[in-house]
Every structure is written in structure tokens, then in C-alpha cells.
What does this fold into?
Amino acid sequence: MSQSAQSKGGQGQRGKGAPVYGRGPPGGSKEGDRPRRPRREPEEEVWVPKTILGQKVASGEITSLEEIIESGLRIQESGIIKKLLPDLKSEVVDVGMIQKMTSNGQSTRFKAIVATGNENGYLGIGQGKSKQMRIAIEKATSQAFINVQPIKMGCGSWECRCDQKHSVPFKVKGKGGSVTIEIIPAPRGLGLVAGGKIKRLLELAGLKDAWTTAKGSTPTMNSTSKAVLDCLRQTFSQG
It folds into this structure.
């Protein structure tokens, strides 16, 4: 028998159940592969209060942020705000790098500014720094929760005179660094007359209609965000 005949005979003896190397089942998956495990979602950390104020909030003795501010107590845990205001939203306002020359060479750190609010009368702004961007954002978020302030809303416009809470109740002025911002009540339906990032901060606070004027180096978001928070804080303290 010739060599070609032997090769044909060898192919003919291969049965249907014999493995065919170099080929796989349709779909590209291999037989016997284990099913993929479902992706685990990050578990939320259980808040354990460390201060006396935190223990009172966790036990239900204190139920509002206004009660804490009127008592003159200091908030030192972000879990207190998360417990009292579970509907807060966080948003990164600005990020940047800090470069410094040291004896060991040039060191680089990241900074982040985060704003948090529920679009219904509460706003907080925080800043964080770290060698890693993720840690800087986490620090800024925690600081923003601690700095949350209540905002008194109303209708202070003589053109509108409605009873809805869509603007500030009166004209307020705040300062942060070299930036000075003034918020003036506006009639319903006008919208927010403000720059991009300032407008977003006012939206997080819950304002829908307002005029604003700004002086100073407004691109410096560290000063600008402090000026906005100082403005809105006065609506609660003076009202």
C-alpha cells in the first residue's frame, strides 16, 4: 500500500468522536470552561460613630442638621451628614497638580475640589490633596460632607412676589480669597445668570432663578467655591 493510501486510511479511521485539534466549538468558547463569577459590587462601609455628636445622631436623639448648627456643635464625621441627608450628590468641581521642589527632587501632588448638595437647600464644598488622584478626591468628598450648610430659599424679587422657594430671599454677598460674589433674587422663569461652574454650584444648592455678579480671579475655583458657599451661608444665618 502506498504512503498516500495509508494517509487516507488513517483519516478514514478517525471516528466522529475523535478530537480535532486546532478547532473549537462555535462561539469561540472552550468546552469545560467554568462560568464566570458575577462581579462583586463594592460593599458600603458601616459607619461607627466616634464622637458624642455622632452617637446622638446614630441613636436618633438628633434628627436634623439645623438642630446641630443652632446648638453650636462641631461636625467632625462625614457619617453624620450621610445619616441626616442620605440624598446628597457629590460632583468633582476642579482638579489640578501641585509641583514642589525639595532637596530630594521635584515632588508632585494632586488636589481636588468636590461639591456636594441635594438640589434642595443644602450645599457643601471640600478640598483634598494627595499623591494619588483617587485619594485626593476621597479626602475632598469627606471634607465636603463635613462642610455642608443649610440654605434658606425663597422669593425675594419684587418682580415676582410669589410664595415659591426658587431663589434667595434677599441679596447676599460673599468673599473667598480675592473673589467677591453677589447673588441677587430674580423672578421665576429667568434661570441662573452665572458662569459655568458657579451656575453648577447654585444648581446643587437648589436655586433656580438668580442674578450673580463676580469680581476677582474667578478661574481660581478654590476661592470662587468658598465665595459661593459664604454667600449661601448668609441666607440661613441672617434669615
